[in-house]
Design goal:
DNA-binding; Four Helix Bundle (Hemerythrin (Met), subunit A); homodimer; disordered N terminus; 9 helices; mainly alpha; Arc Repressor Mutant, subunit A
DNA sequence: CACCGCCATGTTGCATGCAGAAATGTGTCT
DNA sequence: AGACACATTTCTGCATGCAACATGGCGGTG
């Protein structure tokens, strides 16, 4: 299965060759890691020094990051790091659920090939034994298979536009399904969540095979909401939150 | 003072002051108007000549247009104009319906203020007599009020993320509600569509006021599908299509 | 003491020169 | 005549210098 990849790129993490890509990846990582706090001004000259790229590719990266939603442009010029609230997380997950539900519905309505259905079932069969195990390695394999499942599902929707839209939402922190799940692999609640998630996947394949679009939609929405449960688990266990990528961008005022 | 700018084209349609914005607006307009065809390479030097801006702001605009979806970046570098199919239009409208349905559901679930509800009803009352008239001026007023209605609804959803997502979809041609509606104002079918659309708006306000999220969602989705009807009308009347902005980006192979 | 204007500084936006790479055309060899 | 290698041209990507703008501090004045 070649799930490994843990030793990817020992020297420079960013193996890409254009300076703009380097700046983009590096900046995204640094923002999500909390190196810059919300509201921090992203002045170009200091960034040039830190990132080791020139101003030209840096500015291209800044434009991209604004489109991704991590930066906000000031009217007077320049960019600052965006701030996210708990309500933003909730909405991001809800919107992701709606869009993935639409993908599942499309897959159901437009008819899935036997080959695609078989691929989904194969993934589910591989996942099934993993949800009963609690070791970290199984968890990682689960995450990988989970991503494969969703990727296949998105392909089956046959809608480049829907893919683009979902990827746009996923570019925000916290919206990603795996963003909130890896941190608490050892907790008992997480195992229960995995069991439910697996059931959702099985139901999704059934619904798509039967061309039941509404059921597929509903299951996918509920499936995304598991991330909300994950969020609550992370928030209820002090200390776990710091492990979540992008946690530094959160305002933890107890609003909702 | 007032030293510079004496030669700054006063008649330029784009009154914005930064060169990047100028390039962005001008390029977007030219692409949608069909000055560039799908697959055309957007070489920088010719564009510099045509747009009158330097390469640096031009490249920033190209990055933005790629994020908007009008351009596609080549692996070897550079950009080409994207191509859209009828399936893309259909999906764009469907996805917009899903997202606006979510906005309406949010507004219903989260509770609308009397003030917001009154504003929506006021708009609807102003629209109501317009749907019975067929002159172009009434049509323009209708479009303006329609946009105000949707803007208000989006505000009532109270979700910056949902707004961002919807605007991302709307940045594509054909996805906009008004994109396909202005061209056939004089056709009798369009009047019927307006009547149905008005009914949708009334139902939306009712559902939101009663906090009936599912009903609001359903109405908004069906409302968006009116654009599909508009699309079919435009496609069935030869010659109308050329008036639609971005029509040149379409492949009119009779696929679906 | 408060407020206003001015200057200094830092920052963004822009233009252009240069280098490397891809694409294109040409000539030669088989 | 076709194909391959090489040269030329065009293009993108990058770095840097320059100018205008915004910002903040300081001093002067009411």
């Amino acid at each position: 299965m070649a799930v490994g990849n843990t030793l990817r790129a020992p020297m420079s993490v960013h193996a890409n060759r254009t300076q703009m890509t380097r700046a983009l990846l590096s900046l995204r990582e640094r923002i999500l890691s909390g190196e810059f706090k919300p509201g921090d001004r992203m002045s170009e000259l200091p960034l040039v020094e830190r990132l080791g790229v020139s101003r030209t590719p840096l500015r291209l990266a800044l434009v991209s990051l604004e489109h991704e939603g991590l930066l906000r442009s000031l009217p007077a010029g320049g960019y600052v790091v965006r701030e996210f609230t708990r309500a933003d997380i909730r909405d991001a997950i809800e919107i992701r659920g709606v869009l993935e539900g639409t993908a599942a519905r499309f897959a159901a309505e437009r008819g899935a090939s036997r080959r695609d259905l078989r691929a989904l079932r194969t993934i589910n069969d591989s996942v099934e034994p993993l949800v009963r195990r609690a070791d970290y390695e199984s968890f990682e394999r689960y995450v990988a298979l989970n991503e494969a499942f969703h990727e296949r599902l998105l392909r089956m929707a046959e809608s480049p536009l829907l893919r683009r839209t979902i990827e746009g939402v996923l570019s925000l922190p916290f919206a990603s399904p795996s963003a909130l799940v890896l941190q608490h692999a050892q907790l008992p609640e997480s195992r229960e969540i995995l069991i439910v998630a697996h059931r959702h996947h099985v139901g999704l394949v059934e619904a798509i095979a039967q061309r039941e679009g509404a059921r597929a939609d509903g299951i996918a929405r509920e499936h995304a909401r598991l991330s909300l449960t994950n969020l609550e688990i992370v928030l209820s266990h002090q200390g776990l939150l710091d492990e979540v990528p992008g946690a530094a961008l959160l305002t933890l005022a107890p609003d909702d």
